[in-house]
Design a protein that fits this description.
The chain has 826 residues and is α+β, with helices and mostly antiparallel strands. Helices cover 27% and strands 21% of the residues. The chain starts with a helix and ends with a helix.
Length: 826
């Protein structure tokens, strides 16, 4: 039997039998992942010995005695002395001209009945960092994407968008081993492979296998000293915003000397005219530069089309620039002048601009993009274009009813309904029930995202700045409250200074361990602007925190080099915000990362945040099941980031219970190493999968998870979500076809997860307008060996055998395991 047949038979036997034996539509209750061992689905994993390690087996890489006990095959690896004098191994690329892979192999104990986990110990922020994968022979277990059910062994944490942060010298990555590898076996052969690259991989210190997801390392696993936050950054000047003001002056002088500008530049210069604290502004020069720029774009569009000259927000930025300089246009009688060079001949600038913005509005409203941050970019532009058309008293402006609908859809106050002739790539907008933000305020990309999540909140604040609508302000405040639980304190890896970061480990896009700290993301991306506009306690506190950490004037930002004069908008908003925040009274609000106890959850995205003394735990329950470039079904996967002063972990573990409606529709993993996407320039055909492996020579790398079959959730009515059953037509090499509604993988009514002492029950049902159906009550049962628990959401003590989880709510319990049970397990 071929490997692919072996895998396919396994997956169909473990999952599809359960679905096909039930009448459909049905509420399916899953235990563990799609490939989890099902022989004892209701049994708990083994408990650790009291005071000891719960590892089945361990390999201490670079230790000859440990390696010899595990049939170690060196492959292309070498022993190195790593941090703290600890031994480790790193993989060297095979000596070949290109497409070379490095590898090492070993044998470890596993459990034939329970899910076996593999945990690897890495150092934080290594000099070299490669994508590492588990291989079954020459088949890769996992995908090259970050946000999928089977990611790389390094969790895709080798990328960086700006400054790199740290939360200790080491971190541990925990992964599920596929069920077909360990069934009916007490040991398993594992191969770690590093992907392309001429340099060595990061150091790998240890490997553990275990059945309890919460690994307790043995006493001989030396960590580093307890993590401590570094000192606050020294401010370069007494007034930390003064360098920003000086930079703004420099950019304004540069911009007003140009003949033409980018849309961002024209907008930024027009803003500068409105600030009396910018002394270098030459109003006439700014006006002439903006006038020439808009004239040129209007002529170019008349000679072509809006889509050939504009992007998501270009027309909107020009509209804002004209609005800000409206009095200058009228004082100079510029609107009534003939626009020389316009292809229609004699046309006034007023008529030419109405045509320019009217056509831009028509075109852009037929393509509002698909993801939350893109949707907001476009909506802000639509509002700006409509506003300037109203000032022109043009009948091309849309009704207030239409504008209100666009605004409400952009911030998730209502489900998206398509405009006339609107062509959206995303199928999920066909239902009218898909919201771009969760009810509690997290942006949907369409799963949880770090960088783009903070950006979505920032854009919503900007939309309030444009509209002045109180409902948009209230919605942005909700978003501010929702982002705060997923920020943490870290140290800058280069300077050692403390920073706030937005957690990057449970994010399906731009994953970064332990968090994303550059560009003030951990403070809210544009925290001073948020505080200025919203004035709510959460935004004000983070604005104050940026000032306290002396990062308010930090200018090491990539957009200086990319945007130049076009970065003026952000810097002007920062100065405006800084001056306002320094005059504000501080709020009594304490951030979750500064509290002793805190628990919060978002039922729509399955995210959880826990602060329990020194323990910080962040979860994404259903990680990577959001279609697009991710999984196309229920993967029952929980991604967890857990850290305290002693240890830092990122885990992929099975949820212990998922319930959802299904018609029986399924999706099977294709034989691909990554899903195709024009947006990312991805193509992964057989030629790209042809590599050289030590001892194997040149081979075509196949996907070991081919055939893993995931059930797809149905809508609350029992009908399939759009394109849910389109599996047979799926071409993983094509990104031109639409993908299913993300709720085929995220439409879980109820989910449970047990991790260490923490038991979570999450009930998503009860919001029909959001596609989650009418409310159903569930019972969260406590494990048999638990005598008492504390509800971290309420502080309530729980002694019953179960607790009720009401619709649109989450119970987060900290369990107290009976001492008698602990002694029995020893």
């Amino acid at each position: 039997m071929s490997d692919s047949d072996r895998h396919d038979n396994w997956y169909r036997r473990t999952l599809l039998g359960a679905i096909s034996s039930a009448a459909v539509p049905v509420i399916f209750s899953g235990v563990g992942g799609a490939d989890a061992l099902q022989s004892h689905p209701d049994s708990a994993p083994r408990k650790p010995p009291k005071g000891g390690s719960n590892a089945l087996d361990e390999v201490n890489f670079g230790n000859p005695g440990s390696e010899s006990q595990h049939s170690f095959d060196t492959g292309t690896s070498e022993t190195v002395e790593g941090k703290g004098g600890q031994t480790a191994r790193r993989l060297l690329p095979l000596n070949a001209p290109d497409h070379q892979l490095g590898s090492m192999s070993f044998t470890v104990e596993c459990d034939p009945d329970y899910r076996t986990y593999l945990t690897l110990k890495f150092e934080s922020n290594p000099e070299n960092s490669k994508r590492l994968f588990l291989f079954d022979g020459t088949d890769m277990i996992g995908y090259l994407h970050q946000g999928v059910g089977w990611p790389s062994l390094d969790m895709g944490m080798n990328g960086s968008l700006g400054a790199v942060s740290t939360h200790g010298d080491f971190w541990y990555a925990t992964h599920r081993l596929p069920g077909y590898l360990t069934e009916n076996s007490e040991e398993v052969d594992l191969r770690i492979v590093s992907w392309d690259g001429e340099r060595p991989s990061q150091n790998i210190y240890r490997a553990y296998t275990h059945t309890d997801p919460y690994l307790q390392p043995p006493a001989n696993d030396k960590g580093a000293e307890q993590f401590e936050l570094g000192p606050i950054r020294n401010a370069p000047t007494e007034n930390q915003i003064e360098p920003v003001v000086e930079k703004i002056d420099e950019l304004v002088q540069e911009g007003q000397q140009k003949d033409e500008l980018s849309p961002r530049g024209a907008h930024g210069l027009a803003m500068a005219v409105q600030r009396d604290w910018i002394d270098v502004v030459d109003e006439d020069a700014v006006f002439e530069t903006v006038l020439a720029t808009v004239d040129d774009w209007a002529i170019r569009q008349a000679e072509s089309s809006p889509q050939e000259v504009g992007g998501w927000e270009d027309h909107g930025r020009f509209a804002k620039a004209v609005t800000l300089l409206w009095d200058y246009f009228e004082e100079r009688d510029a609107f009534s002048q003939t626009l020389d060079g316009h292809p229609t001949g004699e046309m006034t600038r007023r008529d030419a601009y109405v045509q320019f913005f009217g056509e831009g509005l028509d075109w852009r409203s037929t393509s509002r993009r698909d993801l939350a941050n893109q949707f907001l970019f476009v909506t802000i532009g639509l509002v700006r274009m409509n506003s300037v058309l109203e000032k022109f008293d043009s009948d091309r402006a849309r009704s207030q009813e239409t504008i209100d609908r666009w605004i409400d859809e952009a911030v998730g106050l209502s489900g998206v309904s398509l405009n006339d002739n609107e062509d959206k790539f995303a199928s999920w907008y066909e239902t009218g029930s898909y919201h771009t933000f969760t009810e509690k305020g997290l942006s949907k990309e369409p799963d949880y995202a770090a960088h783009y999540g903070e950006l979505g909140f920032s854009l919503a604040t900007k939309l309030y700045h444009e509209t002045g609508l109180e409902r948009v302000r209230e919605r942005a405040i909700t978003m501010s409250q929702a982002r705060a639980p997923f920020r943490l304190l870290v140290n800058d890896a280069e300077t050692g200074n403390r920073w706030a970061a937005t957690d990057g480990t449970i994010s399906i896009r731009n994953a970064q361990h332990p968090g994303m700290s550059s560009h003030l993301r951990g403070y809210g991306f544009t925290p001073l602007f948020h505080a200025l506009m919203l004035k709510d306690p959460v935004s004000v506190r983070f604005g104050k925190l940026a000032i306290e950490h002396n990062v308010a004037g930090l200018m090491e930002q990539w957009w200086f080099d990319v945007w130049g004069v076009g970065s003026l908008e952000r810097w002007i908003h920062r100065v405006d915000g800084y001056r306002a925040v320094t005059e504000m009274d501080d709020s009594s609000y304490r951030t979750p990362m500064h509290r002793d106890r805190f628990a919060w959850a978002d039922e729509d995205l399955g995210t959880v945040s826990i602060t329990d003394g020194s323990e910080r735990i962040l979860m994404n329950l259903g990680f990577g099941a959001a279609t697009n470039l991710h999984d196309w079904g229920i993967n029952s996967l929980a991604r967890i980031h857990h850290h305290n002063p002693d240890i830092d972990r990122v885990l992929n573990i099975d949820m212990t219970r998922t319930e959802f409606s299904t018609t029986g529709a399924t999706w099977s993993r294709p034989n691909k190493l990554q899903f195709a996407g024009k947006f990312l320039g991805i193509g992964m055909g057989e030629e790209a999968r042809t590599r050289r492996l030590p001892s194997d020579g040149t081979v075509v790398i196949d996907q070991a998870m081919t055939g893993e079959t995931l059930p797809q959730a149905a809508s609350p009515t029992g009908d399939p979500w759009p394109l849910a059953e389109d599996d047979d037509e799926h071409d993983p090499d094509s990104y031109d076809r639409k993908v299913p509604d993300p709720r085929v993988g995220m439409g879980i009514h109820y989910r449970e997860c047990l991790y260490g002492q923490y038991l979570i029950g999450m009930n998503t049902s009860g919001a029909p307008e959001r596609g989650s159906g009418h409310g159903t009550t569930y019972e969260l049962e406590l494990p048999d060996d638990v005598s008492m628990a504390t509800d971290l959401m309420t502080g309530e003590r729980v002694s019953d055998e179960s607790v009720t989880v009401s619709p649109r709510s989450t119970r987060i319990l900290k369990l107290e395991i009976e001492e008698e049970s602990k002694e029995e397990s020893n």
